[in-house]
Model the fold of this input.
Amino acid sequence: MKKIIALFSIIGTLILAACSVGSQSVSSGMADEGYVWFVSNVEQKITVDIDGTTYQTQTIKEKEWQKRRDIKATTKGMITVTPGQHDVKVMVDGKQVYSKKLFISATETKMVKL
Done:
């Protein structure tokens, strides 16, 4: 009788072990975006062209940012871009004041001083 109970216990354990809900996987890592923002000696409205896409934004006053290190102030002029190389041009009152190719990595925040 003990052998039969042991046999049913083993068979039951194997059956339950074979049941599964399915396979699951978890993926994590860095976000697939980077950021660029602009600093100058005065806060001013600027037009930014990144790879042919135009953005209206503003600069962050450099000395104020360094003094307070106010992260909210830096995000108000931040532009989100995909990682990689980008053609960046900045215009103030219709005049081009900055033109450069920038490489921005995933999750990198690039500060451009004008």
In short: DSSP finds three helices and eight strands in the chain. The first strand starts at residue 34 and ends at 40. The helical segments are 2-18, 62-68, 71-75. Strands lie at 34-40, 45-50, 53-58, 60-61, 79-81, 84-92, 95-104, 109-113.
